[in-house]
Write a structure and sequence with these properties.
The protein has 15 helices and eight strands. It is of the alpha/beta class. It folds into two domains: 168 residues, Rossmann fold (3-Layer(aba) Sandwich), CATH 3.40.50.1970; 200 residues, Dehydroquinate synthase-like, alpha domain, CATH 1.20.1090.10.
Length: 384
């Protein structure tokens, strides 16, 4: 019997050249817009284009740009409270995953009846009160497509996901101009994050026809375009491919769910404040190798879909090995950090990492191969 599956998507998605011009139509019923962003986006000049569109529309607006890169629930709540006091009736998120996640939280916290801490325990309380527009400035997090919001919980030294269909964006704009000048190291880390989303969802226990559709298309785009998109700032066709891939991988998360890569990466962000994309990228290969015995057929499927031209591998084992080598070549080419020592994580913290990682049962249960504490220990040891 086929397991039931669902897919929830943003109402309208605009992409391609000059997609930002679509803001004029989106803003017609808006009285006052609130920009959610951060200092890095402002300093990089990325907020100028969306702000120009709001000014052209003649709408009033306010900017909240004090969001931390990897916010705790209290830091995110402070921005939400400031938004609620502003009187704005529309949210425009311009940024990466943390910015968009905080904007999504604000959209369901407009009444002040409950806060982020309450949603951590009872996400079913969420009720959307303000419409949202997501304009991603990286091609990686996929937050513009998901019902998820990730916040750090300091006392647990862990990042925790809040999941509610009420947080799905109303509008999304994918304009490659917003990622043209993204620094290579950020483009690489966020791109590998999208790669993790796609391959985890495709190999998840919860994979289904909807998630497979988006995950395979994302993998095809990422594996064949990410390196050039990261290496050449003027490779706009490849950057556009990566934006679409990031969105598709986010849609795959909505229909399926990530697995052990994300589960084991959460303690790295929660305790050591390692960027989400970087922590996922570091754990990608150890987890993919661990999962190979249970995922060979899936890896072979990815080979069949994503390798263009002559296909020299014939058996499932050959195709699976080829894919793992391909992934490793990409990670190496993009110069992704491979050791937690670079972030000051001592070997004696291994027990704590294992204990924290094993708490993320929401994602570990999705992994095709069961992860026991001894397995988590071996995976972490590969990056220590």
């Amino acid at each position: 019997m086929l397991t039931p599956y669902t897919l929830q998507m943003p109402k309208l998605i605009y992409g391609g050249e000059n997609a930002l011009a679509q803001m004029s139509g989106i803003l017609k019923p808006v009285k006052k817009a609130a920009f959610f962003t951060d200092k890095g986006i402002v300093n990089a000049g990325l907020l100028k284009l969306p702000v120009e569109q709001v000014k052209k529309s003649g709408k009033d607006f306010v900017i909240f740009d004090d969001l931390a890169a990897e916010p705790t629930c209290e830091q995110a709540q402070a921005v939400v409270d400031a938004f609620r006091a502003s009187g704005a009736d529309f949210i425009i998120a311009v940024g990466g995953g943390s910015v968009m996640d905080t904007a999504k939280l604000a959209s369901v916290l407009a009444t002040g009846e409950y806060g982020i801490r309450e949603l951590l325990e009872h996400p079913e309380m969420a009720r959307k009160g303000v419409r949202t527009l997501m304009i991603p400035t990286t091609a990686g997090t996929g937050s513009e497509a998901t019902p998820n919001a990730i916040v750090a919980v300091p006392e647990k030294e862990l990042k925790v996901g809040i999941v509610s269909g009420e947080m799905v964006a109303d509008y999304v704009i994918l304009d490659a101009e917003m990622i043209r000048n993204l620094p290579r190291r950020i483009a690489a880390a966020t791109g590998v994050d999208a790669l993790c989303h796609a391959i985890e969802c495709y190999t998840s226990r919860r994979s289904n026809p909807f998630s497979d559709l988006f995950a395979l298309e994302a993998l095809d785009l990422i594996l064949n375009h990410m390196e050039k998109a990261c290496d050449d700032k003027d490779a706009m066709a490849e950057k556009n491919c990566m934006q679409r891939a990031s969105f598709y991988a986010g849609a795959a998360i909505t229909a399926s769910g990530t697995t052990a890569v994300h589960a084991l990466s959460y303690p790295l962000g929660g305790k050591y404040h390692i960027a989400h994309g970087v922590s996922n990228a570091m754990l990608l290969m150890p987890v993919m190798r661990f999962n190979e015995p249970a995922c060979k057929e899936k890896y072979a499927d990815i080979y069949d879909r994503c390798v263009h031209g002559e296909k020299t591998c014939k058996t499932v084992e050959e195709k699976s090995a080829y894919l793992l080598e391909w992934l490793e070549r990409i990670v190496r080419h993009l110069e992704i950090p491979v050791s937690l020592r670079e972030f000051g994580v001592p070997a004696e913290d291994l027990d704590g990492l294992v204990a924290a990682g094993m708490e993320v049962t929401r994602l570990l249960v999705n992994n095709m191969r069961e992860v026991e504490p001894k397995d988590a220990r071996e995976i972490y040891k590969q990056v220590l």
